[in-house]
Write a structure and sequence with these properties.
425 residues, alpha/beta, OB fold (Dihydrolipoamide Acetyltransferase, E2P), 3 domains, seven-stranded mixed sheet, 23 strands, 23% helix, globular
Length: 425
């Protein structure tokens, strides 16, 4: 049954967590891409349960905060929803959003944010992932899912968020005449930049002789390609097809394709330095929860500190153990979200550093940390709502907030990296 389309004029009042403009029409809330708060526009509306979904037709008024979005896919792509906002307005918006999140969830009115800006507003990402879809028997598209029709893929040849070396490489790859046949076997592609490019293919089926010949030829003739790896869907095994498995980052550390690394190198350095400043005088035991390869804690390694990195990704642990300065770091293999009750009880940390996944640490993990009574908790997150929920548990457990820093890890997007320091009363 075809959905009825209603033409209407609406005025945006806010942006939601996806960067869509929020409006009200005929007593219902609606969302539309491409508008800024205060702007009025003609839109086509369709109903989805009790919501309106809008498609922008024509802006009638223009916000003074608006700038020209450089991406030709800006009204369809989720990747850079704040690209319409001038940089100073993005900063104000993210600070205000952080304030509102803390007030709503943690009942905390905090206005003393420190703010660290990225040194690049575009072309800063050292990692991109593209979805792959066969649209007919002879054509394959690679790119991002459309915001208006999520089952469709927007073909991307040049992502303005990606490092320029990634775009150069991706353009070179797509110019090959024999690429389409190979891509039909893929469902996702990961490209990472460092001291070269690492290319990983998530495959639906094994490679055959023609695929092997194609990849071999491409690797031998591509400038700057560090390695090609593949994996079959639903398998946690990586096959080294050509070149090296690990890619060296800006810090000289070589990591596996499946090891987490922050996507913005300049902000990653600032984040690491922030942790170091908070721990520089600590003598004793430091716990680094969800620690990956020890990115946040390896600069702290010395004879006066015991550092334990808790991580469940075996690739990250392997990478961390190869770092020279990690001779005084102990890696504990643990999925904290599932094994929180098996935390070591004989030792007590003086500082807990935690950088949990997007969903946050959760009640049980936070309560366990409170029971250990560290002098300081450093909480890092890119999800403000989850962070606000968790730090409320710490504040109820007799901790107070010393500092909140917002780091613009993801310019042009709704996301911000939080750095919160809590100390015991």
């Amino acid at each position: 049954m075809k959905k009825e389309i209603l033409k209407a004029i609406v005025t945006a009042t806010d942006l939601n967590s996806k960067g869509q403009a929020v409006f009200r029409y005929d007593g219902r809330v609606g969302f539309v891409d491409g508008l800024l708060p205060g702007e009025t526009a003609e839109v086509n509306l369709t109903r989805k349960q009790d919501l309106w979904l809008g498609i922008l037709q024509k802006r009638i008024t223009h916000s003074p905060l608006r700038c020209q979005h450089p991406c030709s896919h800006s009204n369809l792509c989720f990747a850079s929803p704040l690209g319409w906002l001038k940089p100073y307005a993005q900063k104000e918006y993210k600070q205000n959003s952080a304030y509102q999140v803390l007030k709503r969830i943690a009942n905390l009115e905090w206005e003393k944010f420190h703010y660290i800006e990225s040194n690049q507003y575009w072309n800063y990402r050292n990692k991109v992932e593209f979805s792959v879809k066969v649209v007919n028997e002879n054509k394959v598209v690679c790119g991002y899912h459309s915001t208006q029709q999520p089952h469709q893929i927007i073909p991307i040849r040049n992502c303005l968020l990606a490092d320029e070396t990634i775009n150069q490489f991706w353009s070179e790859f797509n110019e090959r005449k024999d690429v389409q046949q190979f891509l039909k076997k893929c469902h996702r592609i990961l490209i990472r930049a460092g001291n070269g490019i690492h290319f990983h293919f998530f495959l639906n089926e094994p490679l055959d002789f023609k695929d092997n010949a194609f990849l071999t030829n491409f690797f031998n003739n591509s400038i700057g390609l560090n390695g090609i790896t593949t994996s079959i869907q639903n398998e946690n095994r990586v096959k080294i097809f050509k070149g090296e498995l690990r890619l060296q980052g800006y810090d000289g550390i070589r990591i596996h394709p499946f090891t987490f690394r922050q996507v913005n190198d300049s902000i990653a350095k600032a984040l690491q330095q922030r942790v170091k400043n908070e721990c520089i005088s600590v003598q004793g035991e430091i716990w680094d929860l969800y620690g990956g390869f020890g990115f946040l804690s390896y600069p702290l390694a010395n004879e006066n500190r015991i550092i334990k990195v808790f991580e469940h990704n075996r690739f990250a642990i392997e990478d961390g153990k190869k770092i020279k300065s990690n001779h005084s770091i102990e890696f504990v293999t643990m999925d904290i979200s599932k094994q929180w009750n098996t935390f070591p009880s004989k030792s007590k940390p003086i500082v807990v550093i935690m950088d949990p996944p997007y969903a946050g640490a959760g009640l049980e993990v936070c309560k366990k940390i409170v029971s250990l009574r560290p002098q300081k908790i450093i909480y890092i997150s890119c999800h403000g709502a989850a962070l606000a929920r968790d730090i409320k548990i710490f504040m109820n457990g007799n901790y107070h907030i010393k500092d909140i820093t917002l780091l613009d890890m993801f310019p042009q997007t709704m996301d911000i990296e939080w750095f919160v320091v809590l100390e015991k009363y």
